[in-house]
Amino acid sequence: MLKKMKFISVWIIALLSVVILPNVIGASSTKSKIPVSETGFDTNITNNSLAVSPDEQIAVVSDSREQSVLVYDLTKGKLRKKIDGFGSPRNIVFIDGGSEFVVSDSTLGTLRFYSTKNFTLKDEVVVGPGAFGTAVSPDGKILYVNNQAHNSVTVVDLEKRKPMAVITGFAQPRQGIKVSPDGKYIFVTNFQGDKVSIVDAATQKIIREISGFSMIRGISITSDGGTLYAANSGRNSISAVDTLDGNIKSEIKVGREPYGASLSPDNKLLFASNKADNTIDVINVADHRVVKTIDGFNEPRQAIVFSHDGDRAYVLNRDLSIARVNVKTFSIMDIIQDDSKKYKLKRLRSDKVGTYLADQEGMTLYYFTKDDSSVSNCKGQCSEIWPPFHADNIISAKGFNKKEFKTIIREDGQKQTTYKGHPLYYFVKDKQAGDINGQGVNNVWFVLGKKVFEE
Predict the structure, then answer these.
(1) Total count of domains within the chain
(2) pLDDT tens digits, residue range 124-176?
(3) What residue ranges are annotated as transmembrane (predicted)?
(4) Does a structural domain hold residue 197?
(5) Do 334 and 349 have their domain in common?
(6) Coil, helix or strand at residue 153
(7) Model pTM?
(8) How many alpha carbons lie under 13 Å from residue 274 in its C-beta half-sphere?
(9) Minimal CB count within 10 Å: which of 396, 421, 431, 436?
């Protein structure tokens, strides 16, 4: 009877979870379709995920607010596949040398196994509603699954594709879970109580708890297992913790609402992603100094992955695009995204002004000579005559450097696009595509020509 109950609707599973959870152990793999409830099991909790294949050829991304995951071809920088049918996809990991990837879903209460070759569903394992973060053991044989609804961690045998144990005693374990490099310990974040539980992998018992965090988010463990870094979105800092005694040995101030804390492969740098600032702070691990702040992201969270050589980092944005970062220059190299969602600027030409920039509808864009760098001084009535221009995922017109398009937050709270630090505007008297009625107004308003800001 209990076995049949695992395959009925998610809400019935949730209501009977007290009965079913102890019997998750022994649940078999299945390719049966589990219905998606109209409202997700825990949609008030938001997270995203990014996994890069071991050969760094593809990336799989998700956002718990979307009922699909996207697969990108990293070599071509294009969307390769959209996989639908999820409830609240939470975390993605590659297994078996990269031949498959696993997506946890808190609404469906399952782990879905997909072929990397053709992106078909290979297996589906029931672990109960609330399945969030996942982590693979170093030998690739075990998958640990946080379950925030049941305050537990499910231990899944990846060879047999079935749960083998359930570890209890946690308090809302969500996205954050890491396995030590030697595989001996599992570090589990507890959102409730702001603590990290350390589990002995051999005995599957909690042996220590580290507290003192504030709205803890992403965590990372150094390769020697001696230091844990945790993002505190509640106090805008990264905590560096000695894992042996559990003491916070350093508190590093970063931007607003840090979610991610990701170590480079050589453990020399830590990337802290600041969701509210749309930035990443680069921290020198040796002295815990912020050496650089990289801007140009869109609500970066925990989803940060470094390349094996450490030369690049992949950062997931709110719109499920991936910013590829040059770690040596601390700058965004390019944005990988679904071409259908890109905003394509136009380059127009007039006998009066020559070549100039327009939005994707052909409406002319202007700059204001009285603006400061990355600051708009056109406010109040001025902004009614010269409305700010803003677009995400810009494809620049020929002759304009796409890396120079950035986003600022105006004094009135609106977003505005800049080019080489100059805020861009429309003019209300331009009525149709190609109009340039704002050119030269008061000798301070001008169209944006491709050579205007060249030194």
Answers:
(1) 2
(2) 999 999 999 999 999 999 999 999 999 999 999 999 999 999 999 999 999 99
(3) none
(4) yes
(5) no
(6) strand
(7) 0.74
(8) 22
(9) 431
